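Pasting as-is:
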Amino acid sequence: MKILIAVAPEKFRDEELAVPVAAFQKAGISYDIASTRRGTCTGMFGAKTTATLTFEEIDPKQYGGLVIIGGSGSQLHLWNDDLLVQLAKYFHESHKIVAAICLAPVVLARAGILKGKKATCYDSPVSFREMKAGGAVLVNKPVVMDGRIITANGPPASQEFADSILRTIKEVEW
């Protein structure tokens, strides 16, 4: 199984990417990193990663899950990205894992996949408003799972977020 990781081209939250990537590597799970453009993406604290794909270039059938990384760049670059919103819908409708952390769960809300679903996100007025507008049932916990939708509220939840994704991968027969 292969995971697709979506990051903003700038200002993604460093540990929200680093912790799941390390967990995937340790578990032997392959992944690709995609963004709005190919090339170097920079985290809020200077971490660098390389997006080998743009959202336009993704063949979602190749992946068993979508993980969207948060940080302030997700609000700037990912919330309004129609291709990423469509990818989130596709993964959900295909019964694949859809996971988002920090400010990134808003992408799932905008995709319409959180209607009536328990979820969490980074505690900010704009993210709460977006989540409510998308029909999410907000839960004040670091990580919330509702079926194959996994959301987390920010950097301190990075390890639990990664562990929840791995547990879900292992529970699902691929």
